[in-house]
Amino acid sequence: MCGYSEGDPTYRRPNPFFRTQRSFPLVDRAVRRRRQALFLFFFLPGIAMSSWVTRTPDVRDQLGLSTGQMGLVLFGLSVGSMIGILCSGRFVSRFGTRPVIALGTVLIIAGTVVIGVSSAVPSAPLVTAGLCLFGAGMGGGEVAINVDGADVERITGTAVLPTLHGCFSLGTVIGGSAGMAATAAAVPVHWHLTVVALVATGILVYALRAVPAGVGISAAPSTPGPGQVRGQARRSKPQVWKDRKLLLIGAIVLAMALAEGAANDWLPLLMVDGHGLDAAMGSLVFVGFAAAMTLGRFSGRFFLSRFGRAAVVRASAVSGAVGLLLVIFSDNAAVAATAVLFWGLGASLGFPVALSAAGDSGPDQTARVSLVAIIGYVAFLVGPPALGFLGDHYGLRSAMVVVLVFVASAIFIAPAADTSDRSAAALEIPQPTRPSTDPAGQHQGDRS
Question: CA-based Rg of the chain, rounded to a whole angstrom?
């Protein structure tokens, strides 16, 4: 028993979101700067992604593509993303999060430049190549950022991932607003994306210094022997895949990430082709979706601390399902545009809350967060091109029924996000001790 009381200056009242929390040390300046840097690294791809999304109608028209052909172009984003997310976990385990975040950001910047240049040529293969670079950077870098964010959660004892993903949504609001303005003012796509790349470069140079080296590197076992290390690695990997609760958490992430990814890639075109809005109004609806996502993620900590993960995930899935239902089946453009706000609120918290749950679900936090993040980014980046093929044959509104089915299923598997019964055994949470010196000069914990 630690002997700490509320009168002690180092005492912290436990956060109900972390039910196994004891008393974490006060967050020092380096951790605050690190957290702010992670916020910027999520803010950056939000700006870049929304800048591309708001210009998709213009890019499609410049390239002269159909909806199905645009789906093929978007497949470049999926291919790059698959490469990034499949390599990210291994790279983080070997090199740590910092170099993977840096490489991912550089690829996002390079991809943005290539997309802008190739839209001016115009060349569909070059746009596809640029999206491939962009996807590799986003898929690989964001897995590393999530691992680093989960580590900050462990250090601080507070919910960081919802706010982290909220910064992505905030970036989409700002980038989407700028994209809407650029669309209305007929600014060429290549000039618009060049400015975005310059802003992203400045963020990279400023923020990377605050991310420490070595986070996420797999620790070597205490008993030496390369054969034993390889054997332990082979045994640890299937244990994660065989964890039923972790796979259910992954299913939640898959459904909610598909809802977010479908909107990010297709919402402007869905409102233009499916509800008869012009390109500027389609971009405005996307900005509304991004604003709803931002509101949901920045307010997530409040609701999580009072209702718990399972209730928040279930409410999010209900909101997302209602929004999608109205967007798909309502013929009134105003009703559909309003329903997008429910869609955005519903998609806002499922991904980050499930990542937090994955980190608490058992040992080897890096492997668990990486696995669930990979599932999420597969849905986020591979699902939308598949929706493009369906949209080419049945229309984009009908294609969104697939997303509706997945989101509705998350309502029933939401209890998997509650890991309170396992987190105490899974996490090694530091317990504070009041140091005292015995006659021999040895420091020991308070025995009171």
Answer: 23
